[in-house]
Design brief:
This protein has 485 residues and is α+β, with helices and mostly antiparallel strands. Among the domains are: 49 residues, no CATH class; 197 residues, no CATH class. Helices cover 42% and strands 14% of the residues. It has a 6-stranded antiparallel beta sheet with strand order 1-8-5-6-7-2, sandwiched between helices. A 3-stranded antiparallel beta sheet has the order 9-10-11. Strands 3-4 form a two-stranded antiparallel sheet. Helix 3 packs across helix 7, helix 5 packs across helix 12 and helix 12 crosses helix 13.
């Protein structure tokens, strides 16, 4: 168990764990974490129930573990070009998972499915969305998310780094992963949640941030919460807007600072990268709705709903239900248009990142088919340059004016691009895909438009891929359901 350092006021106490009543927890924290002379008012109670991760005396040990992880990455890099005297275990990549899934591995297939669905939802919903996922645990008692440990994610990412800022951030996230693993092993997550705020970086230009995969249109940031519920470790990520529109003043740092301060965590004067490096442990009695509680507090200070301007009542629980519906609805689409083509391309992957690049392409294409008829997707996720075309296409679709809708769709698809959460694989150098080559000699004369119809007007099938083909002035429609119009 970890002691608290000098910064934590009392240097000899252990972190209390196990199930206790709220009253006992408050008493324990007053004795163990804080100066006992603090007044027992609301602010003091809030402070007794939250502590910064950096204030725990275990921190030097965790930093040592992070340093060893960095050394392991260096050895892995060297092993590609020269012999090393250490036996190193290579973490599974998406390419390997695809290859194993094709051979029949159910575990690898689940790895591919989880990564594909997460990538799609992250690029479709940039704010106003909450994702909940469960960790599994491997034979070494390590937490596994999307088929990888936190160390695996860092190793895979840092070895194919596309931007220096992402390397710096990934080291911070790797250290947060060490913290998360320690809190799980010692039982801290049974009573506490580890809360991390990840904002769009301000040490690079907005364009550079956009190219790195951040959503700069609304400067959306993530509030991540990790805890243990009913014997399972879960991670919740809430995506909140940090600005009203492209180029508008940012309010994300101020909102996060005020939200953290309501729990006694003081980020005043801290920069965005420092905030990321300073997660908090907050007792769950202060988080009745887990990550949604944090969003509510942020909205209280900004007067918004998930950071966005909003009129009318704010029903957070109803919105959380809607988030679950969105993901359930997307599963079948991602399976058909992303997972299946990804598996079919397995034999053509050469470089370790080929599968990631192809995943990026497939989900980008899928989003450019669904966005026009699914209003739950923000109209600006393809970028400001395509927003007007998306909104006009939606209007024409609602009015049944498919000819004008198709023109707007083609323009939005030509101009726009999507991205999921920032990763090291954000390269516009595409994986070569031979599956869509045209055999028709006159294909250059065709005008083809694809979109996902919410419902076929003939057979009433849901979420139907619809293809319109214009040739010699005549347009025909064909649905994946088999209906032709």
């Amino acid at each position: 168990m970890g002691e608290i350092s000098e910064q934590g006021r009392v240097g000899t106490a252990e972190l209390t764990m196990g199930s206790t009543s709220d009253a006992q927890v408050i008493s324990d924290f007053e004795l163990q974490f804080l100066d006992p002379t603090l007044e027992a008012d609301f602010d003091a109670v809030a402070q007794t129930l939250a502590v910064e991760a950096r204030d725990l005396a275990i921190e030097p040990e965790l930093r040592s573990r992070t340093a060893k992880l960095l050394g392991k990455v260096s050895l892995l890099d060297r092993s590609n070009s020269e012999p090393v005297n250490v036996e190193l275990e290579q973490p599974m990549t998406l390419k390997q998972a695809v290859e194993e899934a094709v051979k029949g591995s159910h575990e690898a297939l689940q790895f591919v499915r989880k990564n594909a669905l997460t990538d799609y939802t992250e690029r479709a919903y940039k704010s106003g969305h909450v994702v909940t996922a469960e960790f599994s645990v491997n034979e070494n008692n390590q937490l596994i998310q999307y088929g990888q440990t936190a160390e695996d994610m860092f190793i895979n990412g840092s070895r194919h780094m596309a931007h220096p800022l992402l390397l710096e951030r990934s080291i911070t996230e790797a250290h947060n992963g060490q913290r998360q693993q320690y809190y799980y092993e010692t039982g801290v997550l049974k009573d506490f949640a580890m809360v991390t705020f990840s904002l769009v970086p301000d040490v690079i230009t907005s364009q550079e941030a956009k190219e790195a995969g951040y959503f700069t249109e609304t400067m959306s940031y993530a509030i991540q919460l990790v805890t243990e519920e009913t014997g399972k470790v879960i991670v919740q990520s809430a995506f909140v807007a940090g600005a009203d529109s492209p180029g508008a003043p940012r309010f994300d740092t101020q909102a996060v600072t005020k939200t953290a301060l309501s729990f006694g965590i003081d980020y005043t004067g801290a920069g965005i990268e420092e905030i990321l490096s300073r997660p908090a442990l907050i007792h769950k009695s202060m988080l009745p709705d887990l990550v949604v509680t944090l969003v509510q507090k942020s909205d209280k200070y900004t007067g918004r709903f998930f950071g966005r301007p909003h009129q009318g009542p704010k029903d957070y629980q109803a919105h959380l239900t809607e988030c679950h519906r969105r993901e359930a609805s997307a599963e079948s689409l991602v399976e058909e248009f992303v997972v299946e083509p990804l598996l079919a391309a397995a034999s053509r992957f050469r470089h370790p990142t080929d599968a990631n690049k192809y995943l990026d392409q497939l989900n980008d294409k899928l989003l450019k088919k669904t966005i026009f008829t699914d209003k739950s997707i923000d109209s600006n996720v393809l970028g400001a340059i395509a927003t007007d075309h998306v909104e006009q296409a939606r209007i024409y679709y609602a009015n049944g004016d498919f000819r004008r809708m198709e023109r707007e769709i083609l323009e939005a698809q030509r101009l726009g691009s999507s991205s999921s959460c920032p990763t090291v694989y954000k390269s516009r150098v595409e994986f070569e895909d031979y599956s869509e080559s045209e055999d028709d000699e006159d294909s250059s004369q065709l005008e083809v438009c694809e979109f996902i119809s919410k419902e076929c007007p003939k057979c009433h099938a849901k979420n139907v891929l619809t293809t319109s083909v214009k040739k010699n002035g005549k347009t025909t429609y064909k649905g994946a359901c088999g209906c032709v119009g």
